[in-house]
Specification:
mainly alpha, globular
Protein backbone atom coordinates (compact mmCIF):
# COMPACT_ATOMS: atom_id res chain seq x y z
CA UNK A 1 0.00 0.00 0.00
CA UNK A 2 2.82 2.37 0.82
CA UNK A 3 4.42 1.68 -2.56
CA UNK A 4 1.13 2.45 -4.30
CA UNK A 5 0.73 5.63 -2.30
CA UNK A 6 4.27 6.67 -3.14
CA UNK A 7 3.69 6.01 -6.84
CA UNK A 8 0.45 8.02 -6.84
CA UNK A 9 2.14 10.89 -5.00
CA UNK A 10 4.99 10.93 -7.52
CA UNK A 11 2.52 10.89 -10.41
CA UNK A 12 0.62 13.86 -8.93
CA UNK A 13 3.90 15.72 -8.43
CA UNK A 14 4.92 15.14 -12.05
CA UNK A 15 1.48 16.26 -13.23
CA UNK A 16 1.69 19.50 -11.23
CA UNK A 17 5.13 20.14 -12.68
CA UNK A 18 3.89 19.69 -16.24
CA UNK A 19 0.95 22.04 -15.70
CA UNK A 20 2.96 24.74 -13.91
CA UNK A 21 4.20 26.16 -17.21
CA UNK A 22 0.63 26.42 -18.46
CA UNK A 23 -0.49 28.11 -15.24
CA UNK A 24 2.28 30.72 -15.48
CA UNK A 25 1.34 31.37 -19.12
CA UNK A 26 -2.31 31.76 -18.08
CA UNK A 27 -1.31 34.40 -15.52
CA UNK A 28 0.44 36.37 -18.28
CA UNK A 29 -2.61 36.17 -20.54
CA UNK A 30 -5.15 37.10 -17.86
CA UNK A 31 -3.08 40.07 -16.68
CA UNK A 32 -2.68 41.33 -20.26
CA UNK A 33 -6.47 41.22 -20.70
CA UNK A 34 -6.97 43.07 -17.41
CA UNK A 35 -4.53 45.82 -18.38
CA UNK A 36 -5.22 46.18 -22.10
CA UNK A 37 -8.56 44.46 -22.76
CA UNK A 38 -9.21 41.90 -25.46
CA UNK A 39 -7.55 44.04 -28.14
CA UNK A 40 -4.29 43.57 -26.22
CA UNK A 41 -2.82 47.03 -26.89
CA UNK A 42 -2.79 49.98 -24.49
CA UNK A 43 -1.33 53.47 -24.22
CA UNK A 44 1.94 54.44 -22.57
CA UNK A 45 0.24 56.09 -19.59
CA UNK A 46 -1.51 52.84 -18.69
CA UNK A 47 1.68 50.83 -19.16
CA UNK A 48 3.54 53.20 -16.82
CA UNK A 49 0.73 52.97 -14.26
CA UNK A 50 0.92 49.17 -14.21
CA UNK A 51 4.72 48.95 -14.06
CA UNK A 52 6.45 49.66 -17.37
CA UNK A 53 10.14 50.52 -17.11
CA UNK A 54 12.12 53.28 -18.76
CA UNK A 55 15.81 52.36 -19.19
CA UNK A 56 18.54 54.42 -17.56
CA UNK A 57 16.08 55.43 -14.84
CA UNK A 58 14.64 58.17 -17.06
CA UNK A 59 11.75 58.75 -14.63
CA UNK A 60 11.41 57.96 -10.89
CA UNK A 61 12.15 54.26 -10.93
CA UNK A 62 10.75 51.96 -8.24
CA UNK A 63 12.44 48.55 -8.17
CA UNK A 64 9.03 46.84 -8.19
CA UNK A 65 8.85 47.77 -11.88
CA UNK A 66 11.65 45.29 -12.58
CA UNK A 67 9.11 42.53 -11.87
CA UNK A 68 5.84 44.25 -12.81
CA UNK A 69 7.05 45.08 -16.33
CA UNK A 70 7.52 41.35 -17.00
CA UNK A 71 3.75 40.87 -16.90
CA UNK A 72 3.02 43.65 -19.42
CA UNK A 73 3.25 43.26 -23.19
CA UNK A 74 3.02 45.53 -26.20
CA UNK A 75 0.39 43.41 -27.95
CA UNK A 76 -0.87 39.89 -28.53
CA UNK A 77 2.01 38.86 -30.82
CA UNK A 78 4.54 39.95 -28.20
CA UNK A 79 2.59 38.13 -25.48
CA UNK A 80 2.02 34.90 -27.42
CA UNK A 81 5.71 34.57 -28.30
CA UNK A 82 6.55 34.65 -24.58
CA UNK A 83 3.61 32.41 -23.66
CA UNK A 84 4.88 29.76 -26.08
CA UNK A 85 8.33 29.80 -24.48
CA UNK A 86 6.88 29.69 -20.96
CA UNK A 87 4.63 26.72 -21.80
CA UNK A 88 7.28 24.66 -23.61
CA UNK A 89 10.53 25.50 -21.81
CA UNK A 90 8.85 26.34 -18.52
CA UNK A 91 7.11 22.98 -18.35
CA UNK A 92 10.37 21.16 -19.04
CA UNK A 93 12.27 23.23 -16.49
CA UNK A 94 9.61 22.46 -13.88
CA UNK A 95 10.18 18.74 -14.50
CA UNK A 96 13.83 19.31 -13.64
CA UNK A 97 13.61 21.64 -10.63
CA UNK A 98 9.95 21.65 -9.61
CA UNK A 99 7.06 24.08 -10.03
CA UNK A 100 8.39 26.55 -7.46
CA UNK A 101 11.81 26.32 -9.10
CA UNK A 102 10.21 27.29 -12.42
CA UNK A 103 8.49 30.35 -10.94
CA UNK A 104 11.65 31.43 -9.12
CA UNK A 105 13.84 31.00 -12.20
CA UNK A 106 11.39 32.97 -14.34
CA UNK A 107 11.23 35.85 -11.86
CA UNK A 108 14.94 36.04 -11.00
CA UNK A 109 16.21 35.80 -14.58
CA UNK A 110 13.48 38.24 -15.62
CA UNK A 111 14.66 40.75 -13.03
CA UNK A 112 18.18 40.44 -14.39
CA UNK A 113 16.81 41.04 -17.87
CA UNK A 114 15.10 44.18 -16.60
CA UNK A 115 18.26 45.35 -14.82
CA UNK A 116 20.51 44.97 -17.86
CA UNK A 117 17.87 46.60 -20.04
CA UNK A 118 17.61 49.52 -17.62
CA UNK A 119 21.37 50.02 -17.57
CA UNK A 120 22.21 49.58 -21.27
CA UNK A 121 18.92 49.89 -23.15
CA UNK A 122 17.68 52.89 -25.14
CA UNK A 123 15.47 55.60 -23.66
CA UNK A 124 12.11 53.96 -24.33
CA UNK A 125 9.38 52.28 -22.35
CA UNK A 126 10.20 48.62 -21.78
CA UNK A 127 7.75 45.80 -21.08
CA UNK A 128 7.61 42.05 -21.55
CA UNK A 129 8.64 38.69 -20.11
CA UNK A 130 11.54 38.29 -22.54
CA UNK A 131 14.17 38.30 -19.80
CA UNK A 132 12.41 35.48 -17.96
CA UNK A 133 11.79 33.40 -21.08
CA UNK A 134 15.38 33.86 -22.27
CA UNK A 135 16.49 32.75 -18.82
CA UNK A 136 14.41 29.57 -19.05
CA UNK A 137 15.76 28.71 -22.51
CA UNK A 138 19.40 29.20 -21.46
CA UNK A 139 18.90 27.32 -18.21
CA UNK A 140 17.53 24.32 -20.12
CA UNK A 141 20.28 24.58 -22.75
CA UNK A 142 23.13 24.71 -20.22
CA UNK A 143 21.66 21.88 -18.18
CA UNK A 144 21.21 19.77 -21.32
CA UNK A 145 24.91 20.26 -22.10
CA UNK A 146 26.35 19.88 -18.60
CA UNK A 147 23.84 17.66 -16.80
CA UNK A 148 22.45 15.07 -19.24
CA UNK A 149 22.29 12.44 -16.50
CA UNK A 150 20.04 14.50 -14.23
CA UNK A 151 16.64 13.00 -13.42
CA UNK A 152 13.78 14.72 -15.20
CA UNK A 153 15.13 14.56 -18.75
CA UNK A 154 13.29 11.33 -19.62
CA UNK A 155 16.00 10.59 -22.19
CA UNK A 156 15.29 13.80 -24.13
CA UNK A 157 18.26 16.03 -23.28
CA UNK A 158 19.65 15.93 -26.85
CA UNK A 159 16.36 17.12 -28.31
CA UNK A 160 16.18 19.93 -25.77
CA UNK A 161 19.77 20.89 -26.53
CA UNK A 162 18.98 21.22 -30.24
CA UNK A 163 15.74 23.17 -29.93
CA UNK A 164 17.13 25.46 -27.22
CA UNK A 165 20.19 26.20 -29.34
CA UNK A 166 17.89 26.97 -32.28
CA UNK A 167 15.96 29.51 -30.18
CA UNK A 168 19.23 31.16 -29.14
CA UNK A 169 20.35 31.40 -32.78
CA UNK A 170 16.98 32.87 -33.74
CA UNK A 171 17.26 35.50 -31.02
CA UNK A 172 20.78 36.41 -32.14
CA UNK A 173 19.55 36.72 -35.73
CA UNK A 174 16.73 38.98 -34.59
CA UNK A 175 19.24 41.02 -32.61
CA UNK A 176 21.26 41.70 -35.74
CA UNK A 177 18.14 42.62 -37.66
CA UNK A 178 18.07 39.56 -39.93
CA UNK A 179 14.43 39.02 -39.02
CA UNK A 180 11.87 40.31 -36.55
CA UNK A 181 8.57 38.86 -35.43
CA UNK A 182 7.17 42.24 -34.53
CA UNK A 183 9.01 44.60 -36.89
CA UNK A 184 10.53 46.75 -34.13
CA UNK A 185 10.79 47.31 -30.45
CA UNK A 186 12.54 44.14 -29.30
CA UNK A 187 14.25 44.60 -25.95
CA UNK A 188 17.52 42.89 -26.83
CA UNK A 189 19.22 43.90 -23.59
CA UNK A 190 16.49 42.16 -21.59
CA UNK A 191 17.12 39.01 -23.63
CA UNK A 192 20.85 39.27 -22.91
CA UNK A 193 20.43 39.90 -19.18
CA UNK A 194 17.92 37.09 -18.75
CA UNK A 195 20.03 34.70 -20.82
CA UNK A 196 23.14 35.43 -18.76
CA UNK A 197 21.26 34.77 -15.51
CA UNK A 198 19.69 31.63 -16.98
CA UNK A 199 23.11 30.33 -17.98
CA UNK A 200 24.30 30.80 -14.39
CA UNK A 201 21.28 28.88 -13.08
CA UNK A 202 21.69 26.07 -15.60
CA UNK A 203 25.41 25.68 -14.92
CA UNK A 204 24.89 25.55 -11.16
CA UNK A 205 21.94 23.18 -11.48
CA UNK A 206 24.07 20.76 -13.50
CA UNK A 207 25.92 19.95 -10.26
CA UNK A 208 22.72 18.46 -8.82
CA UNK A 209 21.54 14.97 -9.73
CA UNK A 210 18.02 15.72 -8.50
CA UNK A 211 16.18 16.89 -5.39
CA UNK A 212 16.81 18.78 -3.13
CA UNK A 213 18.55 20.90 -5.84
CA UNK A 214 21.04 22.57 -3.51
CA UNK A 215 23.26 23.97 -6.27
CA UNK A 216 20.23 25.29 -8.15
CA UNK A 217 18.89 27.13 -5.10
CA UNK A 218 22.40 28.37 -4.34
CA UNK A 219 22.53 30.00 -7.78
CA UNK A 220 19.17 31.66 -7.13
CA UNK A 221 20.44 33.12 -3.85
CA UNK A 222 23.60 34.40 -5.55
CA UNK A 223 21.61 36.09 -8.32
CA UNK A 224 19.12 37.64 -5.88
CA UNK A 225 21.93 39.02 -3.71
CA UNK A 226 23.78 40.38 -6.74
CA UNK A 227 20.61 42.01 -8.10
CA UNK A 228 19.95 43.68 -4.74
CA UNK A 229 23.52 44.96 -4.79
CA UNK A 230 23.15 46.42 -8.29
CA UNK A 231 19.85 48.10 -7.38
CA UNK A 232 21.34 49.59 -4.21
CA UNK A 233 24.45 50.76 -6.07
CA UNK A 234 22.24 52.58 -8.57
CA UNK A 235 20.63 54.48 -5.71
CA UNK A 236 17.36 52.68 -5.04
CA UNK A 237 16.25 50.47 -2.22
CA UNK A 238 15.76 46.85 -3.33
CA UNK A 239 12.45 46.92 -1.46
CA UNK A 240 10.92 49.92 -3.19
Amino acid sequence: MSLLGSALSEERDQSSRVWSGYLLALVLIVWQIKVAGLHGVTDNATLIEFGARKPNFGFPQAPWRLVASMFLHGGWLHLLANVFLVVVWGSQWSRLVGAFGLLTTFLVTGVWGSLISDIYGPEALAVGASGGTAGLVLAVLCLAILGPGREGWQGEHRQWLRVSAAVVVLNVAMGFGVTSLSGAGLDHWAHIGGAMAGAVVGCFASRDKGAPHRWFWGSILVLVAAAAGVISYRGASPFG
